[in-house]
Each structure stands twice: as C-alpha cells, then as structure tokens.
C-alpha cells in the first residue's frame, strides 16, 4: 500500500526563519523567575499570561515542535501524546501544563481537534517566546524544551533538547513537582 505524506504548509516564513541550527542555551537560572509571556490558548479560546499563575499554582511550560497541522516532530509527537494522556495527573496535583507550539492559530486548532487536547495549547508562530527562552532551532522549527516553575514562578527544573535526550519524560517532570505542588 502506497501512502503519501502531505507537506503543504511546511515551507513558510517560519520554516526559513528557523532553518539554520541554533543550539539550545540555558541562560535562565534555577530559583529565579522566568520571562513572562502572553499567548493565545487555542484549546480554550482565551489569552494566557504566564504571570497570571504566579502565587496561585505551579506550571509546566512545555515547548513542543510541530511543523504543520499534519507534520509532527518524531521526537515530540510521543511526548505530546504522553502529556495529553497524563494531563489529569498534573491537574490532580494542581499543576497547569502550558504547551507552546510555533504553529499558527489555524494549524493549532487542527492539532487540538486531531489529538483531543485538553491542556492549553499556546500558539507562538513568531517564535518570540521560544527565542526568549533560548530553546534553539533546527530544520524549520524551534526545538522542544520543558521548564518546571513553582507556585511563585521560580524555575525549579529545565530540560533542553539533545539528540541523546529529546524530552523529559512525564515521570521525570512529575517528580520535579514533588514538594513544589504539595505546599499549595
């Protein structure tokens, strides 16, 4: 059986802006707040501002790599699925998961629908927030990364993409919140 892959929409301005490899660099420091941002939440149709969570609950900021609504990074797709399947575990511990993608709002709406996402999917097609967090880029899209923030918005753990360790596992991420979310 012959199958075809739909690459429509792949070669866009974002692709060329993020084509050359830029390594991830951690310039954020543990125990310090991270840069604030405001992005549209495609899942819920609202605007999400990171600072709105400060003083209220811990947050996992999960940058993910989606090329188009039909083209997922082979390293990120399983991670997106794992976060989706375990979203209730985070919610039960009063942790919000903010997944950030560089797909535009139309593409992101298709991703939300096709994957049945319940967690907020934030759209950053300009890649401004990806660049602010220095997650790196290669072959047309920013690289994935995860940042664990405590209730006060301070960075407690970070994981940047490498070919040896693509994304932090759900278990690793939940482990980072032990002691953080229990003090709410």
Walk me through the structure.
It is a single chain. With 184 residues, the chain is of the alpha+beta class. It has one domain (13-183): Glutaredoxin (3-Layer(aba) Sandwich). It has 6 helices and 11 strands. The protein has helices at residues 13-17, 76-85, 87-92, 105-115, 128-132, 170-176; strands at residues 38-41, 46-49, 59-63, 66-68, 71-72, 96-101, 121-123, 137-138, 141-142, 145-149, 155-160. A 5-stranded mixed beta sheet has the order 7-6-3-10-11. Strands 1-2 form a two-stranded antiparallel ribbon. Strand 8 and strand 9 (141-142) form a beta hairpin. The longest helix is centred in the middle third of the chain and has 11 residues, at 105-115. The protein starts with 12 loop residues before the first helix and ends in an 8-residue tail after the last helix. InterPro entries: AhpC/TSA (IPR000866), Thioredoxin-like_sf (IPR036249), Thioredoxin_domain (IPR013766), Tpx_Peroxidase_subfamily (IPR050455). Residues 28-183 form the Thioredoxin domain. It comes from Nostoc punctiforme FACHB-252.
The DSSP helix count reads 6
Biggest sheet statistics: 5 strands, mixed
Order of helices and strands: HEEEEEHHEHEHEEEEH
Based on helices, strands and strand pairing, what is the structural class? alpha+beta
DSSP strand count: 11
- Any idea how many domains? 1
Amino-to-carboxy terminus distance: 54 Å
Just give the CATH class.
Answer: Alpha Beta
CATH superfamily: Glutaredoxin
Uncertain stretches of 5 or more adjacent residues: none
pLDDT average, as an integer?
83
Any idea what the CATH architecture is? 3-Layer(aba) Sandwich
Q: What is the helical fraction, as a range of percent?
A: 10-25%
Q: In percent, how much strand structure appears in the residues?
A: 15-25%
From the 3D structure, determine the CATH topology: Glutaredoxin
Basic shape = globular
The Rg value, from CA coordinates, equals 16 Å
Order of adjacent strands in the largest pleated sheet? 7-6-3-10-11
Keywords: Antioxidant, Oxidoreductase, Peroxidase, Redox-active center
Organism: Nostoc punctiforme FACHB-252
Pfam families: AhpC-TSA (PF00578)
InterPro entries: AhpC/TSA, Thioredoxin-like_sf, Thioredoxin_domain, Tpx_Peroxidase_subfamily
């Amino acid at each position: 059986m012959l199958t075809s892959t739909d690459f429509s929409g792949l070669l866009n301005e974002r692709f060329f802006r993020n084509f050359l490899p830029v390594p991830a660099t951690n310039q954020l420091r543990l125990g310090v707040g991270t840069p604030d941002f405001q992005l549209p939440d495609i899942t819920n149709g609202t605007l999400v501002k990171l600072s709105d969570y400060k003083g209220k609950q811990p947050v996992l900021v999960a940058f993910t790599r989606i090329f188009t609504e039909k083209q997922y990074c082979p390293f990120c797709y399983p991670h997106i699925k794992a976060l989706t399947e375990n979203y209730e575990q985070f919610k039960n511990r009063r942790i919000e998961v903010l997944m950030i993608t560089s797909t535009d709002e139309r593409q992101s709406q298709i991703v939300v629908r096709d994957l049945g996402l319940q967690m907020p999917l934030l759209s950053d097609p300009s890649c401004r927030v990806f660049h602010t967090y220095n997650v790196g880029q290669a072959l047309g899209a920013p690289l994935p990364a995860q940042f664990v923030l405590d209730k006060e918005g301070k960075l407690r753990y970070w994981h940047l993409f490498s070919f040896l360790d693509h994304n932090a596992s759900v278990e690793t991420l939940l482990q980072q919140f032990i002691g953080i979310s229990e003090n709410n």
